[in-house]
Amino acid sequence: MTDQWANSQPDPASPGTVDLHLDLDLGGPGGIRASLTDALREAVRSGRLTPGTRLPPSRSLATDLGVARNTVADAYGELVAEGWLSARQGSGTRVAQRVTGQDGGRRGKRAAKAVRPPAHPAPFTPFHTSTSLYAGSPDLSAFPRAAWLTAARRAMAAAPNELFGYGDPRGCQQLREALADYLARARGVRTAPERLVVCSGFTQGLSLLSRVLRGDGVRTLAVESYGLHVHRDLAAASGLSTVPLTVDHYGADTAQLTTHRYIGAVLLTPAHQFPTGVPLHPDRRAAVVDWARTTGGLVLEDDYDGEFRYDRQPVGALQGLDPERVVYLGTASKSLAPALRLGWMALPERLVEQVVAVKHAGEQHPGVLDQLTLAEFISSGGYDRHLRAMRLRYRRRRDRLVAALAERVPSVQVSGIAAGLHAVLRLPAGTEQQVLRSADWLGLAVQGLDSFRHPAVPRPEAADGLVVGYGTPAEHAFTGALDTLCQVLESAL
Amino acid sequence: MTDQWANSQPDPASPGTVDLHLDLDLGGPGGIRASLTDALREAVRSGRLTPGTRLPPSRSLATDLGVARNTVADAYGELVAEGWLSARQGSGTRVAQRVTGQDGGRRGKRAAKAVRPPAHPAPFTPFHTSTSLYAGSPDLSAFPRAAWLTAARRAMAAAPNELFGYGDPRGCQQLREALADYLARARGVRTAPERLVVCSGFTQGLSLLSRVLRGDGVRTLAVESYGLHVHRDLAAASGLSTVPLTVDHYGADTAQLTTHRYIGAVLLTPAHQFPTGVPLHPDRRAAVVDWARTTGGLVLEDDYDGEFRYDRQPVGALQGLDPERVVYLGTASKSLAPALRLGWMALPERLVEQVVAVKHAGEQHPGVLDQLTLAEFISSGGYDRHLRAMRLRYRRRRDRLVAALAERVPSVQVSGIAAGLHAVLRLPAGTEQQVLRSADWLGLAVQGLDSFRHPAVPRPEAADGLVVGYGTPAEHAFTGALDTLCQVLESAL
Fold it and tell me: Which residue of A has its CA nearest to B189?
């Protein structure tokens, strides 16, 4: 019920008293006083009541409105407390001077609503298109919604009240226990709940470790010559410069670690190099651990898709070779969904306290309910079941990719091992740019190998490639995406 | 089915070949090869197989075990790939040299499990005791578990697949829309979804803003002379020094802002000063906005418990007076639970891009599922219902606190407005320490007013007080906690 209320007779004894038209919703949920307060506030906000304007005495307004005088006095009092109005002994109630007035005020709320959204940072937009083969995302349509909710319900029923508090900066005990068991079983990680730290995804882990390393006097982080620029940026933001280790068919060339004496740590993707798709050679696995032991350096093992290997059992984590020299970093972003923002680190004993201190200072912990749900999901076997189903799905997609290319574009080879959610297609020398233009033309979001190159590394000869995230599309969209990819290659080559 | 397998006859032709006892679970989920791999890996790990030891040729081991030779060869190959074993042409397969051996290896996994947990940072432990009256926590037993799960189920059913991806660094659109409506309605905040940024609680918001301010050349943040040291520490970690504004019966003395020309921003709790419990006087609300306009400074409004006022409608947000000069910061930590790690900021238009850029660089976003659930919880009215129930609960507790003290310890006054989840008890001059000792003696976790004092402020005369978080205990524990509090005061005064 809206009532157009008009105090249509300006009071000649009170110069500056306003002729008010207020939209009053007298049946509103907060009652008459709340409606009156809202209407007055809106009138000031919108600029209809300008600064300095004197309001009708509460008694006259109450009479006009047919409400108790206290209702009006209370509304005035509230707006004085909020700073919209000011009340001075002897001069009545006026619109306060400092309210955004003349210029800004008239646009008021509408202006705020019309604010241009800031430019989106790039990485998350491409996944939204149905013909995206960007690497780095699982099939989001496969998130196990029902099973996750079941786990959430069980976790919620079992959680003692104190778990709803601020929580342990290392993450919930329940999740760290479930992860310690799972990681030992599935990835050969040697750790304990006390040495695991739950993070908001891999990136928080890398960010925390970078800050701890920098605090320990480390200035240089070795990275793979092909990798994600966001990881290099993250290290740089903590004051670490990155030097590239050449990636070849055996993974990162670890011999280069010893040629640079100032390297304090190295970030590697041993199970499945990102993006080239090769595993780190056993000799190099050994060499990097030797390097760490000799120099006191730290190895950061980014095991982003270690669960997904299709031709054999996955190679166990490098961390298992020396848990005091290698930090294992895992994530739910590929195995479940990036939206969970859950990752984990298995730390050397000597680093636990430092990492927890840095993490606690920022208090940026993942939500406890998701942590408890994941713990329940792992313990109940739901995580293993989901991984088995996804392994089968991605394996089939990779097989179809290989088969389709062999049939339609035989000049293009799929390189790397049968693993993960992406593959690199080796292109004939000098063709990467024209393939990307063709993809752009046909509306396929996909990245060239060169966009993953460390800026300090010169572009190698014959390194043309396309990084294809075959895991990214929804199941129903994969056939179309694959067909578009073949068209892109057919038309460009 | 566990089979104790023994290669009990050392091969005299192969010096160094080991006499192996392996625990093989032949019926294990991964089949014989996986069991063999695990058993060998464990033997190396535990130190039973020392570096350099030569393993039996795969053919003999296969014969002894009654399995195909390939099974053994595959297991060896896998452990070579992982770096546990090394294989050299002509010298057979040996335990690799670099495996944690002689000293560390023997303790292996057991040693890792025995790791001492690091010392817990302080703030979250006290809430776990049942007789805690620490301020800063809601009643964790009141978390609306069933309603939250219902909202989660609805949110999960409605969420399009792409929401399971990396997400918008500002937070989910759904949540920002629900918050914009709610904050305008309940707190008089003038904002729009494009200007809201969802954070991991208040602390991430303060941390992001501190970094943005520091990047803009601000060096000094004014804070209230009584407040949380973690907030001052957070600002300090971003390179901001803090100067205290004296808190009196009208809140922070904003006149002091103009005496220090180098202050670039001010952090305030206008609705309910923490911990003293007074609201910021209307004149000072106006003055701080004037200061911000004149100097180009920024006001950070920490509205941690603005929804909880018992004597009248809550005073609207200061931000409403000038959304381009005041950042509004809210949190679910008091209204729902700290475990959610959800907070939000309503930003001036000019700061949105900077804050989002800093936030995105760290990629420490709250989980999307919790965000969607909160959006649904707000939109469906569940949040309002929960707040109404909690307002009633906390109001009753405050009334009982006031009544109990009036009856049993009349020398102690409850100061501050009827609001929030905590109150300050004014103590006779010089008695704070003896009251705290008495609390310690009787097992009550509670803090003195002095522990909230900014270190640069001298201890005022007659500022003895006890900060009582009456919201903290579970409902069934409140009566006992209140009785213990009265005993503490009775015995100390």
Answer: A109
